[in-house]
ARM repeat superfamily protein
Amino acid sequence: METQQIAQLLTQTLSPDGNVVRSATDALHRLSILPSFPFSLLSISTGSEDPGQRIAAATYLKNFTRQNIPSSKISKEFRDALVRALLRVDSAVLKVLVEAFRAIVAAEFVKENLWPDLVPELRAVIQNSDLINKSGNCEWKTINALTVLQSLIRPFQYFLNPKVAKEPVPQQLELIAQDILVPLLGVFHQCVERALSIHGKREEETERLLLIFCKCIYFAVRSHMPSALAPHLSSFCRELFDILNSLSFDGAFTWEDGYLLRLKTGKRSLLIFCALVTRHRKLSDKLMPNIINCVSKIVKHSTYISKLDFLPERIVSLAFDVISRVLETGPGWRLVSPHFSSLLNSAIFPALVMNEKDTTEWEEDAEEYMRKYLPSELDEISGWKEDLFTARKSALNLLGVISMSKGPPVGGSGYNSSLSSKRKKGDKTRGKDRSSMGELLVLPFLSKFPIPSDVKAHEAKILNEYYGVLMAYGSLQDFLSEQRAEYTATLVRMRVLPLYKISTPVPYLLASANWVLGELASCLPEELSTDVYSSLLKALTMPDMEYISCYPVRVSAAGAITELVEVCITTTCHLNGCPFFKLWFGRIADESEETSILFQLLGTLVEAGNEHVALHIPYIISSLVGTISKCIPPTPEPWPPGFAALAIMAQCWEDCMPEEGEQKESSEVWVSGRVTIVIALSTLLQQGWLRPAELMEGKAAPLLPPPSCVDDSSALLRFIMQSVTKSNEVLNLKISELLLVWADLIANWHAWEEAEDLSIFNCIKEILPPVTRRSIIEGIGAFVCEAFSQYPSATWRASSCVHLLLHVPTYTIEAEGARQSLVIAFSHAAFSCFRDIRSDPCSLWKPLLLAVSSCYLCYPDVVEKILEKDEPEGFAVWASALALISSSTFEHGLSSESELKLSVLTLAKVVERLLMLEIQRTNLLQKCFMSLMEASVSLKEAQGEEDDDDESGDDQDAGDAETDDDDNEDEDSDDDEREETEEEFLDRYAKAAVALENGTVVEEGDVEEQEQVLELGGLEEVDQQSVVLSLIQRYHQVLLQGHSLPPQLISTFLDTFPECNLYFQQHC
């Protein structure tokens, strides 16, 4: 009855009626607590006559198993029933049900090794399955059994324990290889022979068996090498060579299922070769001649790249990748280098030439075209890359690897020889006496193809081939970066820039030329930047042609200009004029499809131009605000790219402002410029935040603006707040109204992202102390409370804001209720987060405990009640932890003077509170008092060191000059640093994994947060020494009587505070 009910409910989950689906889902959830529930699902997925019901049951069982695996063990009965079901079900159900099996395998077979009979039983099943045992009475399906085997091996494709530098082969994998994989090699050989002997329609089951077995071998050798499998690899690879040689790339075979599986097997074969060359050199070195011979035939099919579908092209791509991997080895280089010319001419370059696919993709999906062929950031050329996927990308990577490899020593005279001899003067690394293949082979080969001109601008063969030449130039960045700047300049001047002067431009070539200039920006001399920049600016303003969109040309030009200005200061001088910006604003105002990119580029240009364009920033911002304002509809929806550009410009203006007393003659210009910027930014924020409510006559009051670009809006608001100095400015700029909306926005902030949140935290620090309006304070408080439970940097920033909010503003009597509300919210949020990590002392203890400390100093009784409500003895838990981090024994203890001062003041109040309790916590009292003494000494020492640092500042500055000279001398020795070995690399990463697991790894951003000085406001004026001495004077008899204090602590404390000798005489 239960199984039938579940089957009916599963059918109802497929209903188009949402209410029916929800009701059925709730009912299934209630039934899921029954022990028989997973067995019922399994029964339905294998025995139901309704295919949809079978799939639904398998899907529910998959999700149910995944959810319950972490918290409960799977019974042996269910495991066995699941495996039996997997061996019988049809392929559609198998594909879903095997996901549940994988979850169990990962938890119980791989991690815990609790399934000892699985491998022997699976071996017996495979031996008696339908395709292997031809008796005809087999109840098991071979394909299903091999699918189970694949799921069993899959987790072992990766190293399982990153904390071990050289992880041994897992015993489970050794057992699988010995008992199942090696015996199946004979079956694999027979299946290959049978598959290759068939010239008509292929046997789908045979082809599927070959594919699954190749996947199993790939997972087995991708990271490890089972000892039982190693001796058989040579014979196995010979079978793979036969499979690869049987593939056709000329369209002679139809796309029936059998041949599709053959192609997938070929792809997996190449992945196996990549793994062998990468991970198992001792075995692969013997196979390299045959591997190279096989893949060299495949890559020559790049001639048909325009006619290849995705999978055949992926195979060609992988063949290029195999060659790249082989080239990174010594034996491989000796094998491949004699064939460089042939590879370049018959395989690599044909993959680069423009074809029908390129023009079609340009017209149908320009974004995808640029992503594939004009990437904004080309990764470093390497033989070990794994994510190229297209034949062209793999060919470009291989071309880069070839160009960087060294040829034989160059003798004699000539241009190449002179370049080489000049370059050797500053070289210190071995092998620099040999020219690279980029100089000896690649560039001479590319120079054979004529550059298009007005006369031959539209000859298809010339255009298509030169497209390939430009692609090739873009891949030579690493090679060209090692040449003299003049070398690259000549190449660009002679082979790239003339394309921009053709009277009838060719968009396909110009987009590629833009990309090349962007990739080679770091290699170009500054004197060439003017010509390059002018050419790119021409491409940036290029209009669409009659039948061709020039969108990729404009976008790639924007990207190239960005690269150019980031590496070349001279280029930014071209920005030093308003006509340029008028042209720019005209393009943005057109609301074209590349507007977003133009905004990003404008921000980058201003940021790179820095002081060269600083005086134009007020004009730029006011013009940009006018443009953006026209595009903001009467709804609260800002325009994110525009806001981001404005935030960058405001920051650049702030960074370029002269220090007080500097450039007095231009101070009026800076003052008026700042006023212009502030008015413009306030106007924009009013339109984006306030105008919608006004238009709807107050009806939109409960409706908040969407949180789009709140980070950039916060940066703009912060700039405005920094500039406000008079009360009338607050009214004119509508500061209070803007802050109200902003506070509501961040109070409901849920899109936590470190890079975006920083602007909000910075804005909070700028808003206080002038603002104490309750609604604004409470909005900020809600944001801070939520920040405690986010990523580590947010926790540090939230703690910093707690001190700022509680101690810096001057709260009126009316606003004191707001501060008390903040104390309640902050203490609860910080202590709750502390409770989650209290079992593992770490650096995050400090910000959380100090945040509670700030709250406690404001309202001790309130905080004590909050702590006791959150956890029994919560006050004692917090006080004990605070005493621990205040002692020298805590690894992540207090470091700054402000932290120590906050700790001393808090511990003094805690000690006094403990003394006043009717039931004294003797151990806690002693612990807190000892930490108070130790923290007081540390604070006194820190204050003394600060005074010493101020006096020695001048001496340090003088010493810096000498240090700089030493640094310059050391720079020349950088090249002599040896490369890290594989063993050292693995050992370093193992140590990093251990540190990560122990929680001792600190992100770079987190380190910056930890080094911030706490803003303690009025607490800065409190004399903590008087507080401590007064406490000892009043309570020394209780504090010192009957307590065993360490003699060393007493001695150190009295040396620092000799006035306390009178009270400690009995302990001296």
Q: What stands out?
A: The first helix runs from residue 2 to 12.
